């Protein structure tokens, strides 16, 4: 029996547990898994809110919202667990606008022929060129599910994974360098369309973020989600793995111990943790474990890894601290005056922001990354008009006074909920392998979240987990899967 501890019950931790249990089953071996999670729920950054904090209303994704056709593990999980997919149609009608902090760079009219003409006049062939570059990246990415890719793994470092997948070169350039300098795409299209995609998906500017993350941002259209919340996938990964789940258990240290197995000289480990439901100074221990998978951003966990060979090689990874604001309002659209228009003009209900004007030294930095009218909740007694749920992403908190300006009056703010978290890693170009975290930190110690430096999605966390599960399986059972889980 191999005992494994997993730190973190998000996408990577739960899928690593599931995949390891799966590999044990198909190789006729046995594994015991304990998942330690510091919060009080399973799912990590995939979580939901309910309007008015009432489960009488359908949940709305607060974090990881969509996955796409190329995300084969997520789609297979939906099918395997008999969950229900829905198109990501959380759109309360209305049109799209791209705002540069001072004025609209683009504003749809709702008339398809007119909007198509506007797009062509402003951007020419650039939208088709952006699609072509994006599709080429997706084609390369899809190779990670192929038999040939599986035979070249599992990978002990991220550089090797990126090279074999054919995606390494996309890490060397910024999005603007890739799209404008290398591909010759219209500057205005990159600074508006691609920039808006990067800001809504990763909270970063196309001139800063690496090309791979830029292209992943462009691949976010036509996404789907799980009815009732995407985190159901990760809850099922955890439960189907038969792991013992320890919620509100914050791991503080991973310590080496001498193996108690007289037939093995392998190092084993003890997990030290604090249970938040008990006294703050109470420290508990669990073990011995043959392997530990760290599936949470290492420097955010506060784990003492001083006894591990390579923990010091994990680069300090800054994250984008994102503010998510949910507003229930009876305003049918944002205020035109706030955006420099009259209130008589038709306003977009989905607004993405671009840094174009700011990059050119004009205007001001947009106060939000995106604003989206998500859902019409219908009427409420005592309130004029239907209620609408709106979600805003921003780099800084949006004060109530600012929200009142956006929605025309403080009386139009029926309910407000604020969430903030470290949502995505800062993904600047990678020039040296040392900028990437090692996957294997010691004998039997593995780190999943370094993969986020390449791509930060629910799917790619499961891809990282599959690789680590195979490293563990190879180490203890001399067994590696000959194809991906998605291909089975």
UniProtKB/TrEMBL annotation:
Gene Ontology BP term (one): prenylcysteine catabolic process
Domain Prenylcysteine lyase: start-end pairs: 107-476
Entry keywords, A to Z: FAD, Flavoprotein, Glycoprotein, Oxidoreductase, Signal
Cofactor(s) needed for function: FAD
UniProt feature coiled coil, ranges: none
InterPro entries, alphabetized: FAD/NAD-bd_sf, Prenylcys_lyase, Prenylcysteine_Oxase1
MF annotations from Gene Ontology: prenylcysteine oxidase activity
UniProt superkingdom: Eukaryota
TM spans (from-to): none
Family: Belongs to the prenylcysteine oxidase family.
Protein name: Prenylcysteine lyase domain-containing protein
Organism: Cronartium quercuum f. sp. fusiforme G11
């Amino acid at each position: 029996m191999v005992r494994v501890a997993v730190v973190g019950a998000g996408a990577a931790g739960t899928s690593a547990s599931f995949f390891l249990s799966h590999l044990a089953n198909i190789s006729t071996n046995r594994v015991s898994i304990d998942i330690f999670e510091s919060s009080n729920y399973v799912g990590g950054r995939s979580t939901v809110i309910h309007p008015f904090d009432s489960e009488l209303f359908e949940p709305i994704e607060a974090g990881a919202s969509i996955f796409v056709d190329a995300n084969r593990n997520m789609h297979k999980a939906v099918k395997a667990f008999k969950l229900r997919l829905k198109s990501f149609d959380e759109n309360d009608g209305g049109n799209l606008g791209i705002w540069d902090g001072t004025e609209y760079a683009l504003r749809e009219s709702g008339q398809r022929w007119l909007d198509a003409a506007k797009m062509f006049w402003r951007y020419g062939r650039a939208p088709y060129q952006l699609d072509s570059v994006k599709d080429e990246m997706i084609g390369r990415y899809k190779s990670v599910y192929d038999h040939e890719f599986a035979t070249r793994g599992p990978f002990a470092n991220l550089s090797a994974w990126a090279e074999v997948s054919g995606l390494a070169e996309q890490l060397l350039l910024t999005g603007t360098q890739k799209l404008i300098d290398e591909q010759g795409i219209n500057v205005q299209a990159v600074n508006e369309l691609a920039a808006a995609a990067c800001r809504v998906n990763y909270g970063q500017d196309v001139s800063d973020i690496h090309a791979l993350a830029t292209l992943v941002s462009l691949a976010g259209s036509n996404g789907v989600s799980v009815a009732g919340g995407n985190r159901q996938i990760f809850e099922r990964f955890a439960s189907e793995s038969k792991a013992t789940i320890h919620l509100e258990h914050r791991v503080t240290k991973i310590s080496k111990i001498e193996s108690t197995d007289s037939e093995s000289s392998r190092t084993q480990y003890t997990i030290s943790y604090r249970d938040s439901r008990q006294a703050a100074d109470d420290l508990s221990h669990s073990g011995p474990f043959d392997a530990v998978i760290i599936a949470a951003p290492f420097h955010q966990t506060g784990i003492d890894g001083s006894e591990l060979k390579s923990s010091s090689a994990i680069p300090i990874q800054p994250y984008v601290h994102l503010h998510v604001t949910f507003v229930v309002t009876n305003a049918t659209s944002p205020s035109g005056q706030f955006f420099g228009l009259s209130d008589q003009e038709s306003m977009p209900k989905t607004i993405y922001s671009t840094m174009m004007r700011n990059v050119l030294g004009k205007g001001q930095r947009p106060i939000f990354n995106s604003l989206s009218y998500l859902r019409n909740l219908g009427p409420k007694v005592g309130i004029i008009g239907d209620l609408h749920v709106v979600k805003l992403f921003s780099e800084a908190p949006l004060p109530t006074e600012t929200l009142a300006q956006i929605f025309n009056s403080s009386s139009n703010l029926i309910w407000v909920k604020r969430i903030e978290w470290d949502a995505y890693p800062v993904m600047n170009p990678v020039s040296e392998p040392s900028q990437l975290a090692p996957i294997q930190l010691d004998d039997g110690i593995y780190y999943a979240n370094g993969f986020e430096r390449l791509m930060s999605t629910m799917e790619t966390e499961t891809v990282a987990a599959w690789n680590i599960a195979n490293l563990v399986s190879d180490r203890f059972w001399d067994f590696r899967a000959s194809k991906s889980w998605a291909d089975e």
